Queue: 2 jobs
Job 1
Amino acid sequence: MPEPDAGVISQRQSLVAALRKLLPEDCVIDDERGLRPFECDGLSAYRSLPMVVVLPRDTQEVSRVLALCHERGVKIVPRGAGTGLSGGALPLADGVTVGFGKLNRVLEIDTANRCAVVQPGVANLAISTAVSPYGFYYAPDPSSQIACSIGGNVAENSGGVHCLKYGLTTNNLLGVELVLMDGEVLRLGGKQFDAEGYDLLGVVTGSEGLLGVVTEVTVRLLPKPATVRALLLGFPDNASAGACVGEIIAAGIIPAGLEMMDKPAIEAAESFCQPGYPMDVAAILICELDGPEVEVDELVALVGDLARKSGATTIRASTSEEERERFWLGRKSAFGAAGRMAPDYYVMDGTIPRARLPEVLTRIGELSREYDLPVANVFHAGDGNLHPLIMYDSSIPGALQRTEEMGSEILKLCVEVGGVLTGEHGVGVEKRDLMGTMFSEDDLKQQQRIKCAFDPDQLLNPGKVFPTLHRCAELGQMHVHRGETPFPDLPRF
Amino acid sequence: MADTLAPTDADGLADAVRWAVAGEQPLEVIAGGSKRDFGRPVQSAATLSLAAFNGIVDYQPSELVLTAKAATPLATIEAAIRAERQMLAFEPADYAPLLGTNDSATLGGALACNLSGPRRIKAGAARDHFLGVHAVSGRGERFKAGGRVVKNVTGYDVCKLLAGSYGTLALMHEVTVKVLPAPERTRTVLVYGLELAAAMEALGAALGSAHEVSGAAHMPAEVAACSAVSYVAGAGASVSAVRVEGFPASVEARCEALRELLGRFGAVEELHSKNSATLWREIRDVRAFAGDSGPLWRLSVPPASGAAAATRVADAADVRTLFDWGGGLVWLAVDGAEDAGEAAVREAVAAVGGHATLVRADAPIRSARAVFQPQAAGLAALTERIKRAFDPAGVLNPGRMHAGV
């Protein structure tokens, strides 16, 4: 992380006093005990006490806090519910963490336009709960959906089990209210389908809190599907499970969810919560289908046939909600189960072309042996998003470092086979230094110029995403080769 | 006639941009050229043609991704993926007939203009299917963004920014898009003779149902009469249309359910796959308003306000209208207004929210009027900063979207 600015820290008391003029007493936290809960997000291996935490209650308060910090050259770290897994909300010792816990209201449910307007601190699942009486739901469902906030989902472009069919956060947003670092309030999008002008909403979504602070979100709502069923499929090896995924897609089926677990993950889940998974298989697939009843029933039969042809030895189709939920129980408990098997675990998140899955799992197995660290794999198989869970013991000196090294090797492998560093968890601080394996210096500089257009002083969440910080003035310089024209090799007509 | 530069590789594109920067020679960027008259006229010293960047680079049906050079005709892409029973789910429109040209629409052009068809309401826009890009910035630097997998949050989503940037930020030369299985069957339920308010209510009821509607349009009588589908043209009244697609049994069941739901609003009829394809292609490409050259506006508004917006404009000018996206997309052909209907359109959009684009008008009108939605000061300033972040010298399609951008 960037070296904390001693000058800023020395002005802490004066900053706190100025913030208390903008916000009520209980919305400015500066005592150590109050700051402690904000010291990390879901990537708990990294911790740092923020200089101050503020909890604004409306857009105007957010705007005033940002304007004040902008004027004083103080950095800002936006924080949703703190469930992120890449350290995007890791505090800065010389920065103000802005929390959105008090901006937690559903402002409008507009059934005629099939959208809802909510404040950023509303939990993901709370949106679906609020609109459920009208027959709608909000589709993206990260596994932390009970706790994670929609503002954080926008920052991270969160996914979830159902994003194969329904898309990530970015595909389900209509508009946001955005506060820039200098306090300016902008509206991007609205209730209409497409943004006007440049798709700034698109680039803000998933920008990990580096471009602006979201103070209001308009999300698309979908009618709830008539029927939902799931299949539990067991395979003798990873390759046949992978092949079955390809067969399902080739048959023209886009399931609502298509999840894979390898042998260690199955065993961990079974010992943790006894979902009744078959223990004589090397991999399982959970395939969820939703839609009209006649379609779901037809596709359940079809997927069963495809699984049989791909060598499945276990084929079970849910016949009740209770059974469907039991199929999911082990998958949804996979992280908890890994936590039971070892003192600590580290969740990785890369995406690969699905066809490369068997070889990637083999290579991960080799790395596991080489580093002597057990790995269980859960996999959003439909879209190639792999979540290896590396189990370690942080009380052993050097164990975290070795785990991170092994994690880096896995992510480099994802890039090597044509994939990417992160499918849904974000870069944050965790994968920041790996960005160079995927992007050239020019690629990264062009991204940082976008940052400069939003936040020229680079006060918003610095130290995240980009391995090297460049001054905006330096990034803006352009070397013009005058006198070399006309380029003789350019074909002309 | 200005020079046309036609580099054949990415380094050549970078050279061309550096030449333009060095000589302060703005470039008009074209691929197929079918939408050359869309947007404000560009004051350029030379044309930069991407025509050489043509061809599918990699297509993996099982991975649901396709990589192609940017100027590959949509027809080429669609033929290749149709053979694998897949589709571009965003249903890119072909505006060539609307804009009176015979040039081929390309994949890069569809992305650069973020053109999405009727399925927008269910499957998303072009920008939602745009996964990765190789491009040259207005600085003459090559860069890439995104990837070749469907799920990726590594770095900023630069593809979103380039989708709908009309060639003003970077020269996209290779793009990766998501493809999806094509539906086996399509049915369209037609409702005849609904007044505008009732039609919007009917479309809303269909879209709010669990029947997974993938198209929801309303054609007033004079627009319906232009259709090549006899069930539509022969109605002698307005026609509202709702589409369902997918597996045969499911489609039949949903079609039946929608006939019942929509039967409460008026007389219903259904179209099978071939007629459906014809009708939705007509709606996608706005064929009812092709063949003349009068001003044509495209309004993107909250779906429940589409009728109100159209009515406001109709009170002030002589218009023909077509509604898609359940009312969220309103096409307005303005006849005989001195200002191409601009004042009325801007006032209507200001009242209901959303934005309007003058998709077609004579060049002098497009020079004199705001083709795209005028932006509030803060948004306009950020837009300019984004432009400078990619193209500080303003050599790529300058002024195409907004003066100075």
Job 2
Amino acid sequence: MRKFALTMFIALQVPVLAWASPNPKLLIPEFAGLAQKATDSVTITLDPALLSMASRFLDASDPQDAATQEVIKGLRGIYVRSYTFDKDAAYSQADIDAVRAQLSAPGWNRLVQTHSRKTRADVDIYIMVDNNQAVGLALIASEPRQFTIVNIVGAIDLDKLHKLEGQFGVPKLDLDAAKSAPKQQDNSILKK
Amino acid sequence: MSEDFESELRAALRPVEPSAEFSRKLLANVTAGEAAPRKPRKLGPGAGRPLVWWFTASLAACLIMAVGIQQHQQQQRLRQTGLEARREVEQALRLTSQKLNLAFEAIKSQSTATDEKSGV
């Protein structure tokens, strides 16, 4: 009887603990309206099975493929939505707000928030850190004619992402600062 | 010399009437062969139904071929999915890096402006 009660107690704790642990996977809306208006749209949904399949089709002897393989090794998902329009202000801020609201949940830290007057581009980069390990990355880039959301789920090794520099053009990130970044810290993580 | 040989050959190969005994024996054999019932040919099991065997063999061959084709198609599909996933991974990383670069450029230009202001 006591054993049964203990088992029941543990069983009841599982969903509570699961709920309590931060979830780096964002609920990205369909953006059906935006997709219709866009001249070019990119929808990428890569779950663990597809990531592992993609990894098998990367050539380990090729340096770029090997680096990509290393980056995606610990990942559990890559989700990208990007829409390009032929005129300015084709999308509203409300379209992005649904995603941005999720990033105010516990666990997410804003790593970088930039605004370029020249390109009129706003880029927000959020990172979720769990046990001193980046477990999620979210990027929202809004430009006058383009709007992009990237959500990377899983053990993101920023060192490995860093190694992609020059191949995919990934800029240098200050990794130590990234891992201990407090929320709302702006413009201080990317190396000059 | 050759004429002698020819004539000898012709003499040797001249048509000869068979003897009466030979004709009699031959006729007797022919009559006996016609009268005797034909023995059934000895064949393996199921030899009496060759069509069934052909049908079974064809069915098996078709089945093997169908399984082979299906496996090949499945392999092709997997390969297609894998290549598509690889393309998507590359595109996703490229897009991510482009946007990271946007942020990087914004910070760089901001810091350059600050440096210029402070006269560094």
